[in-house]
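Slides due. Your pick:
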Amino acid sequence: MTLVQLQSRSVSTHPVHGTVVDVMDAAGPQVWYDMPVEVALSVMAAAHAEYLVVCDEDARCVGLVTHAQLAAVQDSCGYTDRIRLSDITDGSGPFVSPSATRAEAEDAMPYGRLGPVPVVDEHGSALGVLTLSR
């Protein structure tokens, strides 16, 4: 899969009343889910990215991985160079709808979940990333 950099949207002055589209960041680098962890770490370093959006063969978002997640996998005792992003992302989310408000997105997140969350359309395509913090 070719890496894609989307244009960032400006932050709205009224994010509470708007949708996540008003406050989301660009999706950033999108990579194929069959990519080895070592290659993903290299892509992340080259792109100076904090996370990678992981997509399947149909370009649907199946998750998002951070440098910390990839480093933890690489440092684990069971790590081999055969571990792929598909082994650590299961496609179960969390994901955010572009029509959700920021408050709705935060309320829907599992307790304690912080950090970037993919914003996906009805077809599963990544539109951007919402960074949640509580």
Summary: The helical segments are 37-47, 67-75, 85-88, 102-108. Residues 1-15 have pLDDT under 50 and may be disordered.
